[in-house]
Batch of 2 targets.
Target 1
Amino acid sequence: MYKNHADAKRAIVEAGKRLYKNGYVAANDGNITARMEDGTIWCTPTGVSKGSMTEDMLVRVDEDGKVLEGKRQVSSEIMLHLAIYRESPKLGGIVHAHGPGATAWASQGKPWDKAISLDAALHLGIVPCAPFAITGSRALAESAAPFCRQHTAVFLEHHGSVTWGQDVKQALFRTEVLEHTFKVYANMKIFGEIRLLSQRELDEVEEVKKKYNIRCPRAIGRDR
Ligand SMILES: [Zn+2]
């Protein structure tokens, strides 16, 4: 959650540059929002590359999506962001990206649940997949938003991922962990063995999650 507008706008523009630089969005893909303490939301505009976006392009809307500030048209995915903020009053930032790892996994329409690394177990746990619905639709917003209560991210089937956090930075970091996890997973497949954390190791991860108030369901580990 943001106290002042300058911080919120700067966080969105910085996150956009990192998403684009890392290849987690192409062309005009993706969208980012930041919620202010007064409940209004800064949002990326439609039709702009996140790599060349500037603060004056951003649009501020109220919690129903009515434009309060800004000259451009708000992102077509604003309904999804508003639905997520409505579900979880503590969230201050949301990132939607089309990263090649998350999008490839999302094409399978199933959750990610493997404790392949400390990061994956600690920050992702189990990531559900919202069934396919066309971008910008109410159906997409309604199916994806409820997952923010128990998870740190959701896949949109055949589309990409959405991550959230207390601010834009935490939401961005979760997108980065998600993509990094799939890079590691792809390398494990090349090496030929997918070896998961043990149950005892996962018990320790659960303790750390409790300490830092990270809420996501426990990932699947190996039994011995
Ligand atoms: Zn998208």
Target 2
Amino acid sequence: MDGLEMLREQGVDGTLIRQVGEFRREHAVAEEVRDRVLEPALPFFGREILEMAIAALLQGENLLLTGAKATGKNILAENLAWLFGRPAYNISFHVNIGSAELIGTDTFVDNHVELRKGSIYRCAQYGGFGILDEINMAKNDAVSVLHATLDFRREIDVPGYDRISLDDAARFIGTMNYGYAGTRELNEALVSRFLVIDMPPQNEETLMLILCRLFPDAKRESLKQFAGLFLDLQQKSGNGEISTKALDLRGIIAALKTVRCGLPPKKAVEMGIVNKCFDLFERDIVSDVVMTRIPEKWGREDIFM
Ligand SMILES: Nc1ncnc2c1ncn2[C@@H]1O[C@H](COP(=O)(O)OP(=O)(O)OP(=O)(O)O)[C@@H](O)[C@H]1O
Ligand SMILES: [Mg+2]
């Protein structure tokens, strides 16, 4: 599937879809980075969010996706790169990353100095989509590179390096999470370089689309209990009764996979969800929620056909 079909299925505005098609035709991808144009594991579900994101990117804007855990920020960013047919560059700011990794470092090749290009440099050069993951965790050295990269002049001018022009097709998509303990605010000058999408919390409809797509061999009614489990935990975490540790859609998906290969559902959910809470009081609350949704006596055959 080329991605545009997925947009039509979700009822995305036809004018936007046509313009994405035009964007692709106008911007070829260099042979050496073809392998970076990757189809994501799952389509992103959410018509309105897709429309907002596509319109912004078509206008040459950069996007900042903010929101709680598991709201689909990364899967959206990956889908956008795929839809626009661009090579994707994932850059995580959670680790200690600075201008050397982003722009490049001098290295010796055959007795002369050459710049080993960093990820932002290559993204700019090849017209990639740079996914700036957890951008609010960027250290000062990286922030100054980002300021230059995201500037409207579309030229990266970092002292000590050559000036780099951004390819027409290059875009940057930042993600940030304000749920985790220890996350930082993004500085105002950096925020002003983005259009911002605040990702909504999950609802039953989207959760069921995700689960049914990943587990077509499961019983709908049972998947509803897993979606319900996530929503119960989301509500408890929203009320401040528990942290976001147990609010883990990846954990629920992983649990279902282990059930499919034979593990009892209760044990699977323990590994995927319950044991992620290290606080005993919190773990009790989460166990109680699990018990109301996933009966202890359930086996594989209660979930999979
Ligand atoms: N709207 C959605 N459409 C498709 N998949 C989704 C959606 N929302 C969440 N998911 C799924 O939920 C899981 C977590 O998504 P993702 O990693 O994109 O979230 P995130 O917002 O980046 O979370 P975090 O803040 O933990 O980094 C993935 O398996 C993803 O496929
Ligand atoms: Mg993420």
